[in-house]
């Protein structure tokens, strides 16, 4: 829910109608357990007491009572259980959101031509500007196996649905904690992500979506190849095969994925001692522009 049905929570008189000592949480619109004081914040940094007598009403909230200026995410939405979804759209379009890998593989088996989407940054452009038509869309944002980000003995495992901004944060953490000689590939990918589209796009777009689009102007695909990344691919029966990044791209927007197969994850191996990976991108603008030239380079001395 995005709004309350009780209008009294939003008006000036709401605080006057409440019994003395009852404090109203601006986030939930319900009495909270904050103690009486001139100024008090509960754990959510959203419950504030103004003065010694009256709780803060919605009309009085202008941000000055918050330690953090950003309002908290609505607790009701955080506590909601995720459910598998099937929606029917205009023109016979069906939109699915499975929660389990098995259900995703079953859908892909039943609808081999279905488009998998995360941030819709590519498919949305094709539909809106290139008149593409995809009757079956499958959102893979809530499949746990596709959102893995873990440190393995031989490298990093990156789920195909991981958002680019989340990957960037993870790489920064790994670079800070691991030995410098191991993380040359991590640094190159992190540096390339600085100039990859805008922040809003990186917050939505996924690693796997960028890979499987197989765009000739992809900023990351040359780096996956240079870094000897390994792609894990799973079929409709759950069988996993691996393919090197350099062998995955077959041609212009063509990849080594059979019908019913999906990209599960990427293994980015640690670098050897005296092995260096470097990114390069030349474009008209430094930020948020498509590349004139992209390169990924690896040198082992």
From TrEMBL:
Pfam families: FAD_binding_5. Residues 88-273 form the FAD-binding PCMH-type domain. SUPFAM superfamilies: CO dehydrogenase flavoprotein C-terminal domain-like, FAD-binding/transporter-associated domain-like. It comes from the Eukaryota. InterPro entries: Ald_Oxase/xanthine_DH-like (IPR016208), CO_DH_flav_C_dom_sf (IPR036683), FAD-bd_PCMH (IPR016166), FAD-bd_PCMH-like_sf (IPR036318), FAD-bd_PCMH_sub1 (IPR016167), FAD-bd_PCMH_sub2 (IPR016169), Mopterin_DH_FAD-bd (IPR002346). One of its GO terms (molecular function) is FAD binding. Its cofactor is FAD. PANTHER family: XANTHINE DEHYDROGENASE. This is Xanthine dehydrogenase. The lineage of its organism: Eukaryota, Viridiplantae, Streptophyta, Embryophyta, Tracheophyta.
């Amino acid at each position: 829910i995005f709004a309350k049905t009780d209008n009294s929570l939003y008006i000036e008189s709401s605080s006057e109608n409440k019994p003395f000592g009852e404090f109203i949480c601006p986030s939930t619109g319900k009495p909270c357990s904050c103690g009486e004081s001139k100024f008090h914040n509960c754990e959510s940094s959203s419950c504030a007491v103004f003065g010694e007598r009256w709780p803060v009403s919605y009309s009085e909230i202008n941000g000055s009572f918050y330690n953090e200026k950003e309002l908290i995410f609505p607790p009701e939405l955080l506590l909601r259980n995720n459910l598998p979804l099937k929606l029917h759209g205009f023109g016979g379009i069906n939109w699915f959101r499975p929660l389990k890998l098995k259900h995703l593989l079953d859908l892909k088996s039943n609808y081999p031509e279905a488009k998998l989407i995360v941030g819709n940054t590519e498919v949305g452009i094709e539909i809106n500007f290139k008149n593409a038509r995809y009757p079956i869309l499958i959102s893979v944002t809530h499949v746990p196996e596709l959102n893995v980000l873990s440190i393995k003995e031989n490298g990093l495992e990156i789920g195909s649905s991981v958002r680019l901004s989340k990957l960037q944060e993870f790489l920064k953490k790994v670079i800070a904690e691991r030995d410098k000689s191991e993380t040359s590939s991590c640094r190159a990918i992190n540096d390339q992500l600085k100039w990859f589209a805008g922040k809003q796009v990186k917050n939505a777009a996924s690693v796997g979506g960028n890979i499987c689009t197989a765009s000739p102007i992809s900023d990351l695909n040359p780096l996956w190849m240079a870094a000897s990344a390994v792609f894990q691919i799973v079929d409709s029966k759950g069988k996993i095969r691996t393919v090197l990044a350099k062998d995955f791209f077959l041609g212009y927007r063509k990849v080594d994925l059979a019908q019913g197969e999906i990209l599960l994850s990427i293994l980015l191996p640690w670098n050897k001692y005296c092995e260096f990976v470097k990114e390069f991108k030349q474009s008209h603008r430094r930020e948020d522009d498509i590349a004139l030239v992209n390169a990924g380079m690896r040198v082992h001395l």
